[in-house]
Amino acid sequence: MTLKDNPETPELEAQPVGMDGKGEPVEAMVPSDPEAQLEADLDKARKEAAEWQDRFLRKAAELENFRKRVDRERTEARSLAQSTILVEFLPVADACERALKAFASGTGDGLDRYREGVELLYRQLLDTLSRAGAVPLETEGKPFDPHLHEALSRLETAEYPEGTVVTELLKGYLFRDKLLRPAQVIVAARPRTEDPVNS
Fold it and tell me: Which is more confidently placed, 154 or 192?
């Protein structure tokens, strides 16, 4: 049984509930049918919930599309960077092929031609690395720097000051002023003096 069905319940009307700032009575409108008001409020809440769900689904779809686009752009950028480096090395591969053909032809002094071909190839490779941003480190005769060099052994010598790079075993490279690979080196050490007890 609802309020409307109960004949003893009078319909609610506007009733004075207080005074405004000017001394006028303020009336509160109390709905005459609270059940209808509740239904209207419920319908309004359902519509708002549907609107918010629609907004959420749209934003979720936009976010997923954004993620896919970023992944695709990242993959394309990586592929472009790799292909750019590969294009730089193609002339080096061409030079290797020409050197091998010239060596196989057997004309002239083979060993000298082979040496010249390897020197040319090495210069071309260094040029390609330089264009890509990789610069070799100069190490021999320089002070040992643990940030740039990896000491594989020490050599006792009086020819170089202690802590000086004597021999470079593997060349190190910088890439845009950052260490790409440390140089592997042998470092000078002060010679041990003869122990007078054992001599």
Answer: 154
CA-closest candidate to residue 136, choices 171, 184, 167, 178: 171
pLDDT at 24: 66
**Nearest of 61, 1, 66, 65 to residue 35 by alpha carbon:** 1
What whole-number distance in Å separates Cα of residue 57 and Cα of residue 74? 26
pLDDT in tens, 73-102: 999 898 888 777 777 777 777 777 777 776
- Mean pLDDT within 134-160: 91
Q: Given 3.90.1310.10, 3.90.20.20, 1.10.357.10, 3.40.50.10490, which CATH number is that of 30-132?
A: 3.90.20.20
Alpha carbon distance 9, 32 (integer Å): 11
Helix (H) or strand (E) holding 186: strand 183-189
Contact of 32 with 15, CB cutoff 8 Å: no
Query: Which CATH architecture fits 134-192?
Result: Roll (2.30)
Q: Find, among 112, 172, 117, 120, the residue nearest to 142 by Cα.
A: 172
